[in-house]
């Protein structure tokens, strides 16, 4: 039996821990990571969910204590467009660039665990009203990720 879910969500927060996180496999000075000056993560996002999302990555030490966040301000992904009945009419498409400084890169390489933090808020209709939104089983969030790194290597 499938039970349809309809809801108005103002600020639902969830976090998912990745405990086997190993960024560029080696944090020693012999790895290629030591040559990275900065990086840009390029995201192409198509959001078919009737909810906006704010994303951030929290970096943790061996004891699970958060010592840094990847982003000063979470990435915002717009909700899919809905009609006055709360039904998705069309997905939103966005291109997002996230700059990672050398300091943040080093901080990320030290992480033993990371949490992906997501805050969700349901869409409003064209008239600005919050309606109950139905989450359909075919709703999707598609993300394509590219990384452009600036390095400093001498031969």
Task: Describe what you observe in this structure.
The mean pLDDT is 84. With 155 residues, this protein is mostly beta strands. The chain is elongated and about 60 Å long. The termini are far apart. The chain has 1 helix and 12 strands. The strands form 4 sheets. Strands 2, 4, 5, 6 and 10 form a 5-stranded antiparallel β-sheet that branches. It has a 3-stranded antiparallel β-sheet with strand order 9-3-12. The protein has one helix spanning 102-110, and strands at residues 5-7, 12-18, 36-47, 51-60, 66-69, 75-77, 81-82, 88-90, 92-100, 113-122, 133-135, 141-151.
Relevant terms:
mainly beta, about 160 residues, about 50% strand, 12 strands, five-stranded antiparallel beta sheet, about 5% helix
Main sheet characteristics: 5 strands, antiparallel
Mean pLDDT: 84
Total DSSP E strands: 12
Unreliable runs, pLDDT <50, ≥5 residues?
none
Name the beta content range. over 45%
Shape: elongated
The helicity comes to: under 10%
Secondary-structure class: mainly beta
Radius of gyration: 19 Å
What topology does this entry show?
Layout: E1 5-7, E2 12-18, E3 36-47, E4 51-60, E5 66-69, E6 75-77, E7 81-82, E8 88-90, E9 92-100, H1 102-110, E10 113-122, E11 133-135, E12 141-151
Antiparallel strand pairs: 1-11, 2-10, 3-9, 3-12, 4-5, 4-6, 4-10, 7-8
Nutshell version of this structure?
This protein has 155 residues and is mainly beta. 6% of the residues lie in helices and 50% in strands.
